[in-house]
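Dear U.,

Please find below the material for section 3 of the report. The protein was modelled together with zinc ion; I have listed the sequence and SMILES used, followed by the predicted complex structure.
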Amino acid sequence: MATYEYFCNRCGSFDVKRPIGTASAEEVCPRCSNTARRVYTSPGTAFTSPAVAGLRELEEESRENPAVVTRVPPKEAAPRPTHPAHARLPRP
Ligand SMILES: [Zn+2]
């Protein structure tokens, strides 16, 4: 199914769902029963959320201008064990 948009001169635009390729050039307006003509719009592609778009931009930026590491980063303190049994494990 595809969503096709029609425009009624009295009521404005409305959508009609039909199988792909079966949309007619004109449709009856569901509100006033006037003849409405089909409006051609861009296909309803999936919306990319701003968070995902931002991550993709970072990925592309990293591909073009990767952050160069010139020395080993400082060693961080190991996290403390959360379970009492972990404290009995051998340590280096
Ligand atoms: Zn109408």
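For the text of the report, you could mention the following: Residues 1-62 form one domain.

Regards,
Y.
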